[in-house]
Amino acid sequence: MTTSIAQLESEIAALSARIDQITTPSHAAIVAQMQALLTKWQAREDEQRVWWGGVAGGGPNNDGKYPVTDVGGYTRLVSCPDQMQLDASMLKVVELTGNGPFAMTVAQANRVVVITSPGNVSVVLPSLPIGTQFLFIQGGAGKLVFSADAGNQILHRQSFDRTAGKDGMTTAIRRSKTVWAIGGDMSYQ
Q1: Cα(35)–Cα(45) distance, rounded to whole angstroms?
Q2: Per residue in 67-106, pLDDT tens?
Q3: What is the pLDDT of residue 182?
Q4: Which runs of consecutive H residues, i.e. helices, occur in 53-131?
Q5: pTM value?
Q6: How far apart are the C-alpha atoms of 62 and 111, rounded to whole Å?
Q7: Which whole-number Å values give the CA distances from 101 to 14, 96, 121, 137, in the listed order?
């Protein structure tokens, strides 16, 4: 028995139509998929509204982090903008112990530097960019005695060069290309 080309084309068209019926989703299936997508989108929008409106120290764990679900469906706790701003404004703390001398570095700049020593310890302020600052705290019995490296000078209103005692705080700010301005709980001996 021979089959004509027209018959083959007719059978292929019928088979193709049957495959389309099997693989093409029904109207109800498409509506259900769209509804599921809209539900996920609305839940993500609700999460985003809560995250954007979040407060520092808020969230489910009172740490400023709120649940946010990514495109893959993975939910994680993310710091809200208010918490990020607070975190960025906080100074980091660097703790140094020993007899020194301690030459400050750019890695320690713009931080709280707690130096603990049983005896007086030398703290050297080097050439760093203008605006660089340190907040020093004397953590032990030893006073922090400040000096500048070659080509620089330290200026204090009363010419004090050391912290006054345990838990005393001193701020050092790079005021110009060759000057460190210092001040705080300081003495001259």
Answers
A1: 15
A2: 999 888 899 999 999 999 988 888 889 999 999 899 999 9
A3: 97
A4: 81-89
A5: 0.61
A6: 26
A7: 90, 11, 6, 15
pLDDT of amino acid 165:
95
CA distance 110 to 112: 7
Residues ≥6 apart with Cβ < 8 Å to 188: 158, 159, 160, 161, 162
Residue that the structure tokens 């931080």 belong to: 111
Could you tell me which of 184, 137, 140, 180 has the C-alpha nearest to residue 160?
184
Architecture of domain 91-187: Sandwich (2.60)
How far is the C-alpha of 69 from the C-alpha of 82, rounded, in Å? 19
CB atoms within 10 A of CB 83: 20
101 upstream amide cis, omega within 30 of 0:
yes
Residue boundaries of the structural domains of the chain: 25-88, 91-187
Binned at pLDDT 50, 70 and 90, residue 12 comes out as confident
Nearest-angstrom CA–CA distance, 140 and 126: 23
The per-residue pLDDT for 31 is 87
Please calculate the CA angle 148-115-127 and round it to the nearest 5 degrees.
25
